[in-house]
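Hi C.,

You asked whether I'd gotten around to modeling the 182-residue construct. I have! Everything is below, sequence then structure, no commentary in between.
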Amino acid sequence: MALLAAIVICYLIMVATFKSLIQPLLLLVSVPFAATGSLGLLMLTGTPLGAAAMIGMLMLIGVVITNAIVLMDLINQNRANGMALGEAIVEGTRHRLRPILMTAAGTIAALVPLATGLTGGGAFVSGPVAIVVIGGLVSSTLLTLVLVPVSTSWSRRARSGVRASGRSVASAVAPRTRPGGA
């Protein structure tokens, strides 16, 4: 229930920030892939899905959505500056690739001692949290860099296609005039 509440709260904040209902949904596409990576690493390491792992999932939702927001924000800025959709997506992704990868790599490196139990006492709590965040970051970072730009492109093209088809229907229904004004 807490995971669902976290996702809903993040969605509502993003709706207010982006002033859109669609863009926040596009950003949330990364969250299931984070869960997949987390659960995969938990299974691979034989770590049970307990309360500590669920706390890690809550942390992970915020980190994953932040990466997607950083990318989407630059794409939106590029569009506002007059770039075509494809160019805005490519340039936005190119400029945000390094910061997103560096942030994820730094977070993963910082969590490795926790995940391996090198921290000493309290490893039964910190280990599952670290494993969940590491697994989720690996899968979601790579997929965020692909899925957010692709889903943005598809949604914008679909919306412009609907508008274009709406105009063509309107023009087809409009009464025709004969050349010569009558």
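If it helps when you're writing up: Residues 123-173 form the longest helix (51 residues).

Thanks,
B.
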